[in-house]
Amino acid sequence: MGKGFRLAVGTIAWGFLRSVEDFRRVARFLAEVGVEGVGIEYRLLPRELRRRPEALARILGEAGLENIGSYSNLKEPSIEWGVGSGAKIYWVVSRERDCAKADMVLEEYVLRARSSGITVALHNHLRTCYDDLEDLSRILAKTRDLALCLDTAHAIAANIDLEEVLKLYRDRIALVHLKDLRARVSKSSVRFKRDFVNVGEGIIDFKSFLRMLDLYGYRGYLMLEIEALGSMDPYSAVRLGVERVRKVLEDL
Questions:
Q1: Which spans in 114-174 are helix H?
Q2: d(Cα 180, Cα 198) in Å, to the nearest integer?
Q3: What are the boundaries of each domain within the chain?
Q4: Which of 13, 169, 176, 177 sits CB 3.0–4.6 Å from 151 for a disulfide?
Q5: CATH class for domain 2-250?
Q6: Looking at the predicted structure, is the pLDDT value of residue 1 above 70?
Q7: Cα–Cα distance list, 92 to 81, 85, 102, 126, 210 (Å)
Q8: CB 74 within 8 A of CB 105
Q9: Exposed / middle / buried, residue 99 (Cβ in 10 Å: 0-12, 13-18, 19+)
C-alpha cells in the first residue's frame, strides 16, 4: 500500500452477519481484494462469534487478515473479548449526554484497558460529547493514554479542520476511518445511512487528506467504512471503495 499506509475494511458494510459462515465468506472476500485488516462491528456479529472470540481470531488468521480492532460502546464487547479475538484497537463511542460523566467513564475505561494491550481510541462522532475539536481537545488533554480514531465523514460534517487535528494530535491518532460525506448539511440533519457514502461519492477531497496524513507521519491503518450503500450490494461497494482508495494513493 502506497505511502506506508495499510488498508482495512469495516464489517459494518454487511450489516448483521447471521452466521459464522457469513463472516467467513466476508473474510475470504476481503483477502481476495487484497486488504490487510478488518475492523469489527461486534454488535453485528453472529452470536457464536460474540461468545467465542478465539473462533473469530482463527477465521481471520486462516484468511491472512489482521483484526485491527472493534467498535465499542464502552460496555461491550468486554476487554477480555478483544484480547481473545486479537483486536489491537477499540474505537469507542460514548452515548452519554452528561459530558462530565462521559469524561469520567472514558477515563476509567482507559485505565481498565491499559494492561490488556488494546489501544482505546476515541471516535469523533456527531451528536455526542466528542463531535468537535474543542470537545476532543478537552478529553485528550485530560487522558494521556487515550488515542484518537479520526473519522473523515464525521469530522467534515462537524466542520472540523482535518489539518488542524493532524497538527495537534498526529502522535495520538491510532486509526483513520475513511468514508465520504454526501453533502454539507447541518449536523442535526445528517443521516448516517443516507449521508455517509462510499469514498469518491461525496464532497471530501481524499487526495489532499491522504497527502496530509503522509506529511504528518501517519503510518497506521486506513479503514474503509461504508454506511450508505445506496443500490449496491456490500461486496460490490467495498470492492469499488478499495479500488478508489488505491487509486488515490497511487496518484499521491
A1: 133-142, 152-157, 162-169
A2: 6
A3: 2-250
A4: 177
A5: alpha beta
A6: no
A7: 15, 17, 12, 13, 23
A8: yes
A9: middle
Cα-trace Rg, the chain: 17
Place 2 in a pLDDT band, splitting at 50, 70 and 90: low
Nearest partner of 121 among 70, 53, 56, judged by Cα: 70
Task: Work out the burial of residue 172: count CB atoms within 10 Å of its CB; fewer than 13 is exposed, 13-18 middle, 19 or more buried.
Answer: middle
* Sequence letter at residue 23: F
C-alpha cell at 186: 447541518
pLDDT tens, 52-93? 999 999 999 999 999 999 999 999 999 999 999 999 999 999
Between the CA of residue 219 and those of 7, 58, 134, what are the distances in Å? 11, 26, 25
Phi/psi for 67 (5° steps) reads: -80, 100
Rounded-to-integer distance, Cα 237 and Cα 229, Å: 7
Kindly report the backbone phi and psi dihedral angles of residue 123, in degrees, each rounded to the nearest multiple of 5, phi listed first.
-90, 120
Helix (H) or strand (E) holding 83: helix 79-85
Please give the helix or strand (H or E) that residue 235 lies within, else none: helix 234-250
Report in angstroms the alpha-carbon separations of 144 from 46, 88, 237: 35, 18, 37
- DSSP string across 22-44: HHHHHHHHHHHHT--EEEE-GGG
- End-to-end, the C-alpha distance of the chain in Å comes to 12
Q: What is the rounded CA–CA span in Å between residue 151 and residue 223?
A: 9
Collapse the DSSP code of 120 into the 3-class scheme (helix H, G, I; strand E, B; otherwise coil) and give the result.
strand
